[in-house]
Structures are given as structure tokens and as C-alpha cells.
Amino acid sequence: VVTTLSLAGIIYLLCIGVGAGAFGALAGVGGGAIITPLLALYFGLPMHQAIGVGLVAVIATSTASSSVHVERHIVNVKLGMILESATTTGAAIAAIIAGYLSARWLAGIFIAFLAFSCYNMLKRAWSTRNEQLQTEIPPYTPENYPAGLLASVFAGALSGLLGVGGGVIKVPVMYLFMKVPLRAATATSNFTIGVTAAASAYVYYMRGDINVLYAAPVVAGVFAGSLGGARVAPKVRSTHILWLFVLITGYMAIQMSIKLATGKIH
Amino acid sequence: MTRQLSPEELKKSERLIANTLKVGAYVSFVLLLVGVGSLVAKQSNGLTIARIGIIALLAAPVMRILAAVVMYAKERDTKMILVSLWILAVIACSAFAGIVTH
Q1: pLDDT number for residue A133
Q2: The complex's ipTM?
Q3: Which residues of chain A are within 8 Å of residue B51 when distances are taken between CB atoms?
Q4: Which of B14, B39, B83 sits opposite A70 (nearest CB)?
Q5: How far apart, in whole angstroms, are the C-alpha atoms of residue B53 and residue B75?
């Protein structure tokens, strides 16, 4: 077990955190999806520990951004908590199962998730390329709770298995099936991922899979990144962020596949 | 059973949740900054401070659910109290499962 990090290592980890935090604040996606593969690929962190750091980063993103979004009343707290009853259940079960899966299996599932997220954001970036920012949230009543709860169990399981937020699944389901406006759906998803990640983070922590040495600089960066990102958000075109996300996830899916094929993931 | 709240009342009651999240975020952010700073300065207690920061962060979502329990108890919203307690129970079980499968 590594107990010290070089100054350069700490600075790299901080930067990864700032980038992921800014992404989360600007696009509502990306915390764990960026952090976990980077740590596994370039820092030689075992897959289970890379996922552990991803989970803590997801909690940080959610906590920092939701404190603002709840105050501004963009989050639907009641809807979020009803969905959390399903996400936490899925997450806890998946986190326990993850303990019995090999790193190669987890990496394989992660590659599939990255490819799916990449494709999903590509679609979103393309369809919103000329769209104006939605500032006012129209009045709405969430519909179709069974669909939302089912998707939430699945999103929670992904979170517990891979250390990601699962917003890639929850946001479209809330938007398309439950008829929640996109901005409210994104904020509510962001609100739920903290508690969801906590349900599995406890499993990882107790199992000794949360490496504080790596998690501390990453999470400090995530806080700084999400605070800064939230500040510049009104001035940045979200389509550009989405394209960047597409590039990064696509690139990392390919890199992870190569490493998996050549047996370099442990 | 459930009292209908006006938008103003809803905003006010949700402020407890927002504030809980804010406190959790800032406490853990400061501890992590101090911890990482100490690690850079090669102080021996850096990792311990960082660990407390991570634990504070892990505690934030639970504190937020507890705040929700208080909020829904005031509103006498039995359904939402049960939802909150279910989430707490799942988290408690997961911590226990982590110890068992260690």
C-alpha cells in the first residue's frame, strides 16, 4: 500500500478533481465517470479503490451543488427522496456484489457504461445544438412513478458497482417518462446521487476500499471545481461541455479496452 | 393527514435541508484542504485530518436525511417519514454489510 504521494502526484489529483467538479456543475454529469478510469489507468490504483474515490467524489459534487439548488427550489425534494428509496437499495446490493467481482469484470462493465454515456451525450449535444437555455421551470406534476422507481434501482446499482452517479439513466427517465422539466430533472438527479453514493460508499469504506491519500486531493479539487463551475455556468454554452464530455468518455472507453485486452487492469 | 404547504412555507422548510448540505460541504472542504496542505508540507497528521474530512463528507448525506425526517415530522407527512427511515435503514445495512464482507 502506498502511503505517500509526490507533490506532482497530489497536484495531478487536485486537477482531476477540479476538472470533474466543473464538469458536474456545468453539465450535471461526469464526476465518477471521469475520475474512476483516470485513477485506474494512469495512477495504477486497483479498480475497487478507483471506484471508491469515484463514490466519494460523487457525494462531494452532489452535496456542493444541491445546497444551492435546493435553496433556489430547482430540486424536487419529495420526488428525489422517493427515488432515493430505490437508488440506495440498488446501490447497497450492487456494492456488496462488487466485492466479489474481479477487477476485469468491473472494468468490462465500466467500458460498456462509458460507451453508453458517450453515445447518450452525443445525442443530447446534437439535439440541443441550437437550443436556448431553459431558465424558468414550468409547473409540473411527476407522472409514472413505477417507471421512475425501476430506473432508479438500476441507476443505483450502477452507482454501487462503478462509483458513478447514474444521472445518465435517471435524467432521461425523469424527463421522458415522468414528465419532469429537464432543468428540474438534472437538479433532482444531482440531489439524489449523494445519498445513493453514500449507501455504497459505506460498504467500500468498511471494506477498506476508500484510499484517503488519493481521495482527499481529488475531493478537495471537486469542491473547488463545482463551486467555480456553478459560478461560470450562466456564461458557458452547455453544448460545448457536452461535446468535451463525449470526447473524454469515448477516449477513455478505448483506452480501458486496450488495457483490459492486454491484461493491464488489476 | 398531510397538510398542504404554500410555496413560501415549502421554501422555508427546505432551507433546513439546504443548510445541512452547506455545512457538510464546507466543513469537509476545509478539513480536506488542511489535510492535503499538511500532506504537501510532509506533516505527520495530514492523512488523519484528511480522513476526518472524508468521514465528514460521508456523514453529510445521512445528516441531510435526518433533516428531512425533522421537516416531514413537522408537516406530519407520514409517507415521507417512512421513505426517509427506509433510506436510513438501507444505509445502516450497507455499512454493516461492509464490515461483514471485509
Answers
A1: 59
A2: 0.90
A3: 212
A4: B14
A5: 33
